[in-house]
Design goal:
With 120 residues, the chain is mainly beta. Helices cover 0% and strands 51% of the residues.
Amino acid sequence: QVHLVESGGGSVQTGDSLRLSCVLTGGNIGEYGMSWFRQAPGQEREFVAAIGWSGGRQYYEDSVEGRFSISRDNARSTVSLQMDSLKPEDSAVYYCAAHSTDLNADPDYWGQGTQVSVSS
């Protein structure tokens, strides 16, 4: 059974950086496209970033383009999200997700989430 475990969340101030990591266990991360979503209180879960199976292509939500960077290390079964120039509106629970066939399709697996809080 595939499991995803996120880490790296925390409480920071505006302009600071955080690096989230997600480890996939119980499977081969190379068989999955990977993505990050986030959900703020009272709001729907939204797409943040995605990366293809080999890492050659990355996709970003408009508001994080140029500030966030997604990467993967298949040898370490890990996908990361580097978040720079953080803003209060980036505060949310961040979820890692794995897609077996299509990054545009609903993920097959979700992590439990990690909290990111950005104060002004």
